[in-house]
Specification:
heterodimer, A: mainly alpha, B: mainly alpha
């Protein structure tokens, strides 16, 4: 595994991310106007929606990376797929929690069943929550990667399908903020949303890169320890579902 | 195709001789219906409620079949033999899906009358063709996704847990469509003769997409 490439570009990327997150937060609190109906609580929109969009895209990206793994058999694609899904799960839980808070403030309930976006998001999250248990329960690393890739592709395709199915089943409660015909937000809100989306997407990418670099460094340290101490003396690895 | 037919015939013969899976599925579905009677504390149900109970009873019974689908292959070396043979691996997917589909048909042929007898209020005569259509499409989703999930789960350590855990969320959209399509058919009055087109179309589309996905990825589950 070419380990040196993992850390490359990490510093400028991190700086850019910090910049964008800072800009997004400043715009959220000082530039975007207060919503006439919902007031201050509407500002959670600038975190909630980007989190949700990023995590859904992350799941699909995980599926695409998994196609790369099945085509090439190269472990680094498996690692990318794993990290994308792992990070998307974390972002997704964040999106669900912020969404729940927003629902409580806007509609008066912590959970609203006739809200297709929320429900389909929950189903996707429940599905991807089984990704790591699946990896855990397959011993053979090669088979683990292959099966995880099959899972990631199937579920990556499931994400858009599920949204269509659930959307059909309920009426719309969610504000239709972004439609195919374009955004119907007023301009300052639109810009703030865009910057927030970029900030969260950058945060996602940065964290993914950090995780890959860390996993890679850990594997390298382990290889070094083994060659210095020998197989027997090295401490056994903690259980992990991550590819090595 | 010939290979698929051979594997399917082998599975059916094995089921005929051991009677291991289908009777368990039927029994499970019937017990589920009885439990629903007590849990809901109702003598008869109709409409959307009835559709939900029917779909859940069938789903849980199907889960038993899905869990058992590849167990014999694994325990008795069927996978190795199949991989050694110079045949197309997709044949296994087709055979297992068809086998599971037939199991589900048998399950429904027994369970639906039992459901009518025990719980369902309104008569089924007029709406039966519509219900058969809905169940036929639901079976496609159950058998395609079931086969895929079962093939993933059978090689894991905790296969009885992994199977339903992956399978249930994947099946949710199909079950939404199935329950919504069957709901109006089971109404006590003004039941339409045809299920709502919107839901039948959703179900059919879901079946089609997952059949394609399964077709594309199944080969990788059989590699050694």
């Amino acid at each position: 595994m070419r380990s040196t490439t993992y850390g490359r570009g990490l510093r400028p990327l991190s700086l850019l991310t910090v910049l964008f997150v800072f800009a997004a937060l400043s715009m959220t609190f000082f530039y975007a106007p207060l919503d006439t109906e919902q007031g201050f609580i509407q500002k959670i929109f600038y975190i909630h929606v980007p989190l949700a969009i990023t995590s859904l895209c992350g799941f699909v990206v995980g599926g695409l990376m998994a196609i790369g793994y099945l085509r090439t058999g190269d472990r680094k694609w498996d690692m990318r797929s794993y990290v994308a899904i792992h990070m998307s799960l974390i972002f997704g839980i964040g999106g669900l929690i912020t969404g729940s808070i927003w629902a409580k403030a806007a509609w008066g309930h912590w959970w609203v069943w006739n809200e297709p976006t929320l429900v389909s998001f929950l189903i996707v999250l429940l599905l991807f929550a089984t990704y790591q248990p699946l990896r855990f329960s397959i011993e053979d690393p090669e088979r683990q990667s292959r099966y995880a890739a099959v899972f990631a592709i199937t579920c990556g395709a499931f994400v858009p399908l599920n949204f269509i199915a659930v959307r059909l089943s309920t009426q719309f409660v969610h504000p239709r903020v972004l439609t195919l015909t374009g955004s119907n937000l007023p301009a300052p809100m639109g810009w703030t949303f865009l910057v927030s989306l970029i900030a969260i997407a950058l945060l996602f990418t940065t964290l993914c890169k950090y995780e890959m670099a860390a996993k890679n460094a850990r594997a390298k340290v382990r290889r070094l320890r083994r060659s210095l101490l020998g197989e027997d003396l090295d401490r056994p690895y903690g259980r992990s579902a991550a590819p090595l | 195709m010939k290979t698929a037919w051979t594997v399917l015939r082998k599975d059916l013969r094995m089921e005929m001789r051991t009677a291991e899976t289908v009777p368990a599925m039927v029994l499970f579905a019937v017990v589920t219906i009885v439990i629903f009677h007590f849990a809901l504390n109702r003598d008869t149900i109709a409409g959307q409620e009835a559709a939900g109970v029917l779909v859940i009873a069938l789903l849980f019974a199907a889960m038993l079949g899905i869990n058992r689908l590849f167990v014999a292959e694994r325990e008795q070396g069927g996978f190795d033999a199949f991989l050694l043979a110079p045949v197309d691996r997709t044949a296994m997917l087709i055979a297992k899906t068809a086998g599971l589909y037939l199991f589900l048909v048998v399950l429904e042929v027994i369970t639906v009358p039992v459901f009518k007898l025990f719980l369902l209020g309104p008569g089924l005569g007029r709406t039966l063709p519509g219900l058969v259509l809905v169940l036929a499409l639901t079976n496609v989703a159950l058998s395609v996704i079931g086969t895929l999930v079962s093939a993933i789960a059978v090689h894991t350590r905790a296969r009885d847990l992994i199977g339903p855990m992956i399978g249930l969320p994947l099946l949710i959209p199909a079950l939404i469509a199935a329950a919504r399509a069957a709901g109006p058919l089971l109404r006590s009055s003004h039941a339409p003769t045809a299920p709502p087109l919107q839901w039948v179309a959703t179900l059919a589309l879901y079946d089609l997409v997952f059949a394609l996905i399964a077709f594309a990825v199944f080969d990788f589950l059989l590699e050694e």
